[in-house]
Amino acid sequence: MGNKKTITAHVSNEPFGGGNFRKLFDAVVDAMLLVDESGYIVLANSAAQYLCGYANDALCGMEIETLVPHRFREHHRRYRAMYYAHPRKRPMGNGRDLMLLNRSGEEIDADISLSPITIKEQLYTLVMLSAVDRCYQVENALRESEERLWLIKQAAGAGLFDIDCISERIYCDERMRELWWNKADEIITLEKFFAAVHPNDRARCRAAFDNAVNPVKEGICRAEFRVAQAAGHTERWIAMLGQAQFEGGAAKRIVGIVRDITERKILEQSLQQQRNETETLFNQQVAVITASAIAHELNSPLTAISAYGEVAQRALSSTPIDCDQAKEAFQGCVEQVQHAGSKLKELLSFLQNSEVETEALNLNHVVEDALTQARGDGYAEFHLALELESDLPAVMANKIQIQRVLVNLIRNSVEALRAAEISASEITIAVKTVANESMSLVTIKDNGPGIGRDTISRIFEPFFTTKPTGFGVGLSISRALIEANGGQLWVDPDYRQGAQFHFTLPFAS
Ligand code: ADP
Fold it and tell me: Which of 50, 260, 426, 491 would suit a FRET pair with 176, their CA atoms being 20 to 30 Å apart?
């Protein structure tokens, strides 16, 4: 216990204007102490006595440090001296948690504020005490953070889900039920969740879930898919992001959010359509320019061949037959054909030799970039199986051209899968080293309808297409680009589960 000073005069309330002050002090419901400049308590109201566990006027005359836990007492004395040097109304503790020592030696969390008060030219400090309910504080903080989360969720229009991986039941909030067209009291199971997903997107959505519950992975569940549960409901595009929680090596629950991204998807699709139209126009222009260049090169030899042909015809139909003239005309035809051939060769080598800048490339990265580009171009609705080779030596090639080839092949696969309405569509891209050949081999295969025997021999011909809006230049250009980079591109004629294309590229060293 701290020192006890005899302050009978104070207790008898003389300096404070008699019993009225004391009555007023006692009537206040908050705990209050009045402390003099030397640190002694001169008045304590009933609430303060009750809070600190003292009876009647037992606190009066005690040093204020009596109520401070032992370890803080010295510090408190210094603090008190500093306070009296510059007394002003303020809370104590600078945001730190404060403690009061009660009569039984227990420490109580408290908020303390100080106000200087001058009575009959003597400075006192009015100390206001209130016990802090930490539990209430924590609850309050939790409620505030829940409110903040709710506001964020509302602003983003997001729905919440909590999947119990053991019972396969899903807790959904109101927004998520709305997005899935579920009734408020309906129990949602994992099966119902997947059943509402568009059949073409279901495999992708399930793959995201399988990925999240796989304990060797990071537990992230991320996918974009369409939801339309029953006839009459319009289709919605949903973005899902969740995180699995594991216990004993197995996924216990996945908690996450879903957002309606239909508007974004519609915008992307219309942009894609515009891009496709522009590309078709561009391809048409390229074709027209190429055809005009060929026509230009062939025009004069063809005119000359026609003239020589007429001369030969006349020479052969004259009597007697003019063999010399016919011979000369045929010779002219042969020369013009050779001339046309060499002109065409020149044109092709000009088109092929246009500056190809090559660099050492990590093919795995080029594949990943091409996938991003293809997805960005609207070719994303397939399950991807990537088989990349780690430690793959760098290849020497032009990045843009190889990317272009990969995007073409991915795009062809997606278009074939779409046209055949394959629900569990899958594309596999494998990159590996060709043993003993200092080459890398890229394989792209899909589980689409494949290529018929009658068409497979023609698919690399320029302008050959089986698509209503196809232009038929993708594969011929792709093959030319791979060859310009020192590799080869071909289709596997014996592949039966879909279509399978391969290309090679030489290693840099
Ligand atoms: P386009 O795509 O404009 O038709 P391409 O030269 O890229 O031109 O393709 C030529 C043809 O090859 C296509 O029309 C199609 O018949 C066939 N084809 C290409 N890739 C595939 C594939 N993955 N699956 C089935 N057919 C394909």
Answer: 426
Residue nearest (by alpha carbon) to ligand 1 atom 14: 465
Report which ligand 1 atom has the smallest distance to the Cα of 413. 23
Query: Residue of the nearest CA to atom 17 in ligand 1?
Result: 459
Whole-prediction pTM value? 0.47
| Domains by residue range for the chain, with CATH | 19-132 (3.30.450.20), 137-260 (3.30.450.20), 265-351 (1.10.287), 359-506 (3.30.565.10)
Cα separation of 175 and 188, whole Å?
Answer: 14
10-residue mean pLDDT series, the chain (509 residues):
48 56 81 92 90 87 94 90 89 83 90 90 90 73 79 80 93 87 80 89 91 90 85 83 92 92 90 84 76 75 92 94 94 90 74 73 94 86 91 90 92 95 92 85 97 93 84 83 91 95 93
Query: Is 413 near ligand 1, meaning CB less than 6 Å away?
Result: yes
Task: Compute, in angstroms, the gap from residue 112 CA to the centroid of ligand 1.
Answer: 80
Whole-angstrom distance, CA of residue 258 vs CA of residue 240: 4
Residue nearest to atom 19 of ligand 1 (CA): 412
Atom of ligand 1 nearest to the CA of 476: 6
In sequence order, what E strands does 248-351 have? 250-260
